[in-house]
Write a structure and sequence with these properties.
about 140 residues, Rossmann fold, five-stranded parallel β-sheet, 7 helices, 5 strands
């Protein structure tokens, strides 16, 4: 089963003080969830990890991407037009480029499972081709 992972889930996985840390860790270890990392998530996660925990954790995250062999999904040119549509449609939510990119990639890949702690945004977004996003952790 495939899911798109959001920055918040990555930070929650690293941050042991996060309320959802154990739950995120258990899901990743104990399920057959194949996580897809949208390319815009990587610099955002690196920035947040570096800011909160320092450069060594940022480097460890990048090394983990390499060692675990996460699937990285690159933004396509056509995704940019969809991202603009999403940002305009949901402008009152202030979701931002990275969340818009996650939605566009999920739609293109026909995946409605999002691994995120950002329920506020992703519960409000309606992806093309699906009635809603399935949010993990539940």
């Amino acid at each position: 089963m495939e899911a798109i992972i959001d920055t918040s889930a990555i930070v929650g996985l690293v941050d042991k003080s996060c309320q959802q840390h154990k739950r995120i860790s258990d899901i990743i270890k104990k399920t057959d969830l194949d996580l897809i990392v949208p390319s815009p998530v990587i610099p955002e996660a690196c920035y947040m990890l570096n800011t909160k925990f320092g450069p060594s954790i940022e480097i460890k995250f990048i090394e983990e991407i390499i060692s675990v062999n996460f699937q990285i999904e690159i933004i396509k040119f056509l995704d940019l037009a969809r991202i603009v549509e999403i940002l305009k449609k949901y402008s009152t939510l202030d979701i931002g480029y990275v969340d818009g990119a996650i939605v566009a990639i999920a739609e293109r890949l026909k995946i409605n499972r999002i691994f995120t702690l950002d329920r506020k945004h992703f519960n409000s977004l309606i992806p093309l081709g699906f009635d809603y996003f399935e949010i993990y952790p539940e």
